[in-house]
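Changelog entry

Holo records now carry the ligand SMILES as an explicit input line rather than a separate metadata file. Below, a converted record for 2-acetamido-2-deoxy-beta-D-glucopyranose, shown in the new format.
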Amino acid sequence: MAIPVRPRLLAALAPTFLGCLLAQVTVAAGTPPKAFNLTWKSMNFKTILEWKPKPVDYVYNVEISSGSSDWKIKCFLTPNTECDLTDEIVQDVRRIYQARVLSVPRNNTYLGNPPLTNAPEFLPYRDTKLGQPVIKSFKQVGRKLNVTVEDPRTLVRRNGTFLTLRDVFGKDLSYTLFYRRDASTGKKEATTSTNNFSIDVDQGGSYCFFVQALINSRKINQKSPESITECTDQWRSIMGETLIIVGAVVFVVTIFIILLSIYLCKRRQSRAGQKRKETSPLRVA
Ligand SMILES: *[C@@H]1O[C@H](CO)[C@@H](O)[C@H](O)[C@H]1NC(C)=O
Ligand SMILES: *[C@@H]1O[C@H](CO)[C@@H](O)[C@H](O)[C@H]1NC(C)=O
Ligand SMILES: *[C@@H]1O[C@H](CO)[C@@H](O)[C@H](O)[C@H]1NC(C)=O
Ligand SMILES: *[C@@H]1O[C@H](CO)[C@@H](O)[C@H](O)[C@H]1NC(C)=O
Ligand SMILES: *[C@@H]1O[C@H](CO)[C@@H](O)[C@H](O)[C@H]1NC(C)=O
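Structure line, unchanged by the conversion:
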C-alpha cells in the first residue's frame, strides 16, 4: 500500500526541489534571475507594476523615470513581486513613464550591472483602465427619467486637492446609458459628456438601465465595464410594499380578534359553570 504513495510524493516534491536547487546554483553563480512578465495593473490611475518570479535568496529594486529624468528607486530591496507606482505616475498623467525591475542580492552589493527587465512604456492618461461606474441616483417624473452617475475621486492631485475622473478627462470622458422599457426587448441608448442624463420616456412605464464610461480619444481600453442595472419600478415596489404591510396588519389583527373572542368565550363559559356550581349545592341542600 505504501509503495505507490512514495513515488507520487517524490514526483510532487521534485519540481520544488529542483527549483530550489536551480535558484541556489544561480545565486551561487552571482546572478539572480531576471524578472519577467512585467505587467501594469492600473485602474482610475491607481497603478501597480507586477512581475514574476517569486524571489529565492535575492530581492528586487524597482525604478521609474519619465522622459529624460533620472531613474528613481521606488520599491527598494523588496521580496515582493509587485510595486505601487501610483505616487509617481499621478504627478503628470500625460507623460510616458519607463519602469524596470532589477534583481539584486539581499545585501545590495553586486559586481557590474544587476540583471534587469524593462516594463512596457506606460502613459497613464491612455493606459489606465476605467473602473466600473456607479449610478448615484435616478428619478422618473412624468415623461422624464434623470440619471446621475457618480464622479469618482482619483489619486491625481492639483494644487493639493484630489481630482475626480471628470476633472482629469474633461469632455474626453462620456457616459452611455443603455435603457429599455420593462417588458420590451428593444434597448435604447443615450450619451452624455456630463454625469447627468435626462431622457424622454413613456409616462407610467417602468425602465431598467445601466451605464458605461468611454474615453473618446482612446483606441484601446476605451470602455469601462458596465455598471449594475437599476430599474425605476418604484411605483410597483411601493405598491408591493404597501400591500405586504397591509396584508401583515390584517393578518395580525385577525389572529388577535380570533384569540380574543376565544378567550372571552371561554371566560364566559367558565363563569357560567361556576355560577351553576355555586347554585347547584344550594339546590341539592
Ligand atoms: C508570461 O506572459 C505570457 C504572455 O503575456 C504568458 O503566455 C505566459 O504564460 C506568462 N508566463 C507565466 C509564467 O505566467
Ligand atoms: C552579498 O551577498 C552575496 C550573495 O548572497 C555574496 O556573494 C556577497 O559576498 C555579499 N557581499 C557582502 C559585502 O556581504
Ligand atoms: C431632470 O433633469 C432636467 C434637466 O437637467 C431638469 O430640468 C428636471 O428638473 C429634472 N427632473 C427631476 C425630477 O429631477
Ligand atoms: C493652482 O493655484 C495657483 C495659486 O494658488 C493658481 O494660480 C493656479 O491657477 C492653480 N492651478 C490650477 C490648475 O488650478
Ligand atoms: C446633475 O444632477 C445632479 C442631481 O440631480 C445635480 O446636483 C447636478 O447639479 C447636475 N449636474 C449638472 C452638470 O447638470
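Spot-checked after migration. The radius of gyration is 35 Å. Confidence is low (pLDDT under 50) at residues 1-7, 17-28.
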